[in-house]
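Let's sit down with a protein and look at its sequence and fold side by side. Which protein we use is up to you, so please pick one and set it down. Label the sequence line and the structure token line clearly, so we can match residues to local backbone shapes. Go ahead whenever you are ready, and we will take it from there:

***
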Amino acid sequence: MDGDIDKAIKRTHAYYPQVLQDQSHVYFRLRCQKFVEMIRQTAELLEMPPAKPTKSLNDHSLMPMDIEQTEIEVDDPKAEVEDWDKMEMEVADISVKYHELLEETIQYGQELKQEFQNDASTEAAFKEIFSLFMYEDPRKSPQAHLLDRASRVPVAEELNSAILVSLGKSSSAAIELLYQQTEVLVDYLAEEGGAGALINVRNDFLR
């Protein structure tokens, strides 16, 4: 899952229409992950610096000069002003995008809360994901781990398992069983600092 939750839901409805109806908790997890993805995208806009001007208005050290030449090349003030104007426009664009996405995220959260308001089992999950809004930068909150791209993995695995079950198959795919068995083996080899301590199955082979 690449973070495009809408696409995942759409394809599941198209190819396995009963899955999300029969497994409402999986649908809820997907919807919550969509909300988290929107918060992550909003937070990422906070660290998007605009392109800096190639030269400072007062940086005379950047003026190309050849002491052997009688003419001294100087910076073009007009070009420098254009650079600063461009940077100000980029800052404004980022600000607009940030507030637009923030409004969309808030609206989505409200719709999500309303859709599952009668389901008491969702309260803990709502408390966790909505707590991200309590911080100016959610990446510095106690729930920042939710914004890690790795948080998509268990949601994707849960969806895959639900699809397999709907097809009358084991909830664990063959590759998943192989991965689990490999992790057990690596953990055994890693005991007391063995060779397995240098191996991370997920990071080394599944990315």
Observations:
- The first helix runs from residue 5 to 15.
